[in-house]
Amino acid sequence: MSDLLIWWQSIYQMMKRVVVEGSRQEVYTLVFAMSRNKIEMIKSKDAIELIDLLIQRILTNPSDLDVTAPKKNEWHSWRSISGDAAGVIQHIASRPGLTRVEREQCYVLLNMLASQPIHSAEAERLIIHLQVDIE
Hints:
The relative contact order is 0.13. The protein has 6 helices and no strands. α1 (2-21) packs parallel to α3 (44-60), α2 (24-35) runs parallel beside α4 (78-93) and α4 (78-93) packs antiparallel against α5. The chain has helices at 2-21, 24-35, 44-60, 78-93, 100-114, 121-134. By secondary structure, the chain is mainly alpha-helical. The longest helix has 20 residues, at 2-21. It has one domain.
C-alpha cells in the first residue's frame, strides 16, 4: 500500500500543476475525468483543493470565461469547465463518511461557481440539493 501512496502523491502533484498551469484542454480533460468519477482514488480533501485552485485560476481573469480557441484544440471555455467542476463537487458531497467541514467546503465551492462572474448553471442546480443536505 505504501508503494501506491508514493505514486498517488506524484500523480496528485501533477494534477495540481495541470489545474494551475495547464491549457484549458488539459484542465478540461482532468476535470471531466474527475466529474465522471474516473479518478476514484482521489481523496475528498484533494478534490476540494483542486476545484478551489481551478476557481482561483478562473477568477484571476474572468474576462476569459467564455473564450475558446479551436485552432489550439481548446474547445471548452472556463465556464463550461466550471460545470464539470460542479459535477466533481456533487460526487464528493455524496460520498459516505464526508465530514461536515468537507460538506460545507463543497457548498462554498458550489456557491463560488454559481455566483458572478462564473455563473455556472450546473452549479446553481446542484447547490440547492447540497444546501438541503447540510441543513
